[in-house]
Specification:
The protein is built from 34 helices and 26 strands. The protein is α/β, with parallel strands linked by helices. The strands form 6 sheets. Strands 16-15-17-14-25-26-23-24-22 form a 9-stranded mixed beta sheet. A hairpin with a 4-residue loop joins strand 25 and strand 26. About 15% of the residues have low confidence.
Length: 966
Amino acid sequence: MQRTPATIEEQLILKAIGDECAWENLPKRLQSFLSSKEEWHRRIIEHCIKKRLLWNTSFAHKVCKEGEYYEEMMRYLRKNLALFPYHLAEYICRVMRISPFKYYCDIIFEVMKNEQPYDSIPNFSAADALRLTGIGRNEFIDLMIKCRSKKIMWKLNKSIAKELLPLEPVEFVIDSWWGVCLVNFTLEEFKKLTEEEMATIDKICKEEANSFILFDPVIIKGLYNRGLVYFDVPVYPEDHFKVSRLEGFVSNREQQYEDPIEELLYAVFVVSSESSTVAELATTLQSDLSQLQAAASFACRLGWAVKLIDVASILQEPNISGFSKNSIGDEEDIHAAMSSVSLSGDRTALQQGDALWTDSPSPAAFGYSRVAFIVDANITSYLMMGSVSPGLKSHAITLYEAGKLGHASIADLCTDLATLEGAKFEGELQEFANHAFSLRCILECLTSGGIASNQVENVAATSINKDANSLDSDMRNGNLVVEDLEQLNSEGDASSAGPSNRDTADENPPGATQISDAGKEAKKAKKYRVDILRCESLASLAPATLDRLFHRDYDMLMSMVPLPPSSILPGSKGLIHFGPPSNSSMTPWMKLVLYSVLSSGPLSVVLMKGQCLRLLPAPLAGCEKAFIWSWDGSNIGGLGGKFEGNLVKGSILLHCLNSLLRYSAVLVQPLSKHDLDNNGKIVTLDFPLPLKNSDGSVVSVGPELGLCDAETSKLNLLLQAISCKLNLWTIGYIRVLRLYKEREPGNLFVDDENYEWVPLSVEFGVPLFSPKLCSSICRRVASSQLLQTDFFNEYHEAMQDLRSRLRDVCAEYQATGPTARLLYQKELQKEKDSSRRLMTYASGKWNPLTDPSSPISGASGENQRLKLANRQRYRTEILSFDGNILRSYSLTPDYEAAARDAAVATKSESEDGDSKEVILPGVNLLFDGSELRPFEIGACLQARQPISLIAEASAASASLAAKQKV
């Protein structure tokens, strides 16, 4: 674990070591800090050891002998239970005669002698020790039980543990291209060699190439078990390799010491690609090439990475029949063709574990587009259900530890996920199973290129153990999912409100590779390869490294819903990303943009962070229940952390808001008892995106939802309005909410016609938490041909427009925005009468007692939504609640001019790009159902005093303190 220098002196010491400064050339400041020349030499050796540097190429060769340096290094490594330094084997194995097997036996003995737990061994060291000694967690526990069973002998003599350790390495995989190297023999060892072993040693000394495949494996393994040879795993800058599953990985603690190779391994797992050389990976990571070669060599040694063999270089031919650049079809074709290639000489065969390489490695040459599907760490916990499906464990470990699951493992992952089909789960396991079902669904959709298949359509049938035909059983937490919109269009039902849109993908048989368009030539379907990336691993990379990784290896990105707020998203000029367009879109800002653009939505109140309410303002007082969202995902006492919001009772709303407002801003949506169903829950519908088909038509709703014709017509009109005002040409879903249409007090009847549908939220990405919704999105992708059309320009225009709207709303209402500046900032007054302009309770710029206003409703009056909608509106206004009456104040033209100037200045400041930090609102807001307005609630705040009064009191206190000093 790399430690940042804490003091200036430590930084200067690192710089002096890098410059190889002698003691006499050090600054006086460092000489006084180090106190002696011996201390300076000790610092040099310690630095080189921590960096695992070669003695002859480091600064250490000027201050100590080679043997002393490596002996000190081995003491440091044993003390920290560190990984064996394979890249230094030329001296450690050949001269010092310390083999990796002997080193790990010593480490295990030290842990047993000190009676430390197995988890104290770092994960990479434990994995390598398991490979060589065969001692894993269970074997270690068994050895400790045997030692402790001897009781007094174990307490008196800990060395008895050595008798239980293995004497020879266990069998492990040796690839054909590994190098065989000799150690320095003693005379006794040389005399014990057989004739075959002597011949093998002579061959190793004489041959320039010393690959394992050139020798008798039985003889080589015999020499290795006696410590007479060691294996070199060469990795060159021009080599290619790919990361496979982390079989044999031990999930112990991470290392607490500094090891650049181990730390680089995690980054190598994420950025590795078979289409990139080792030198290109070093450029991507901006890391030292030699350290990257050592990290890749270790990964190959443990079988976590596979070196791709260059067939042309092996045969010493520039081109091999069947492997030309233009004739490559797929990896399977390569392996099939290689089976017919005859290798001459000593290179008669390639081992099964060796992968093959050609001059055209990129998936684009195979006709594939690369997709990165980004998930969070929770998916790995869902897959780590050994009692449900043990086959998923290795995939989960690879995804969690390596941060990436390559496309070669996707088919096996889907096969393992299919084992859950038909299984029944209860309680918390059902949530885990839902994610597994959804993951399989979206992976099959992507690998098929978004072409409908029976597998994709049948996943939903086995994903939820409920009766999907009943409207009540389709409601989970009050949510109803729309999943059969395309089926109605293909049937051409007369009751459908929209035009009939046939699913063109269904006209092709499963697995078809051609898409037919009427009047156009058939074109080859796009094929996709999918990698799964963990967003926490991506966040550990530098932004520039992440950008290089995306542009080098992928054509498109896709994210799950929800992503952690700390996720790093591609920029506005990056790749196509079917996920959140910016960090602000993962906050309630997106809801406010949606409501403002559509001029429709539930009544919403935005409260700033840090406020404490003594009473609820008018729109919230008297509500039956309310939806609450925290702005930054804060979770306080079970409130605010839920992605879908918290539904709380109106009787405890004040307490819930005060608890959350201490840590985050809050969005509140009050609901009346008529807005809820008979069970006291809200009723929502989820519509998969995109709403438009490839021909421009909009998907329509039919009677499959069990709604009357009037409700169906309302939903179709809402979808039409959404598709016209917002270009959502992406993957995700939009959720609509059923609200009671408030009427005058004389109308006492409540029926279906008194309800309306309004947008509640829009989410970008794949909702793995809902198998039914995920399956619906997959069918929507197929019917819209989203992945089979050239949508790059249209997508970027749509997302750029959405980012611009988000940026404008955030800039308008954030703490440094024009609205907050003019409402809450105290300005110097040059004229006495200027204090009557734009006064608020907070700043003293606006006096609600003298300025004209229009009363809207009382504190707890009914039909708040109706009264707000029917009020007299002004071009620029502020809504204010004085504790008894909700009022609307029209602002003067001076405010409009000042607001325009401030908006232009703020917009120019925010044009640079999207902030990665959560932008909090700097003013209280109220969305009245059609417009978003500033909301003054000073009378509702606890212990609130005008800022002008606080400023006067502070000035008086300061002057009094000055007089007392005099």
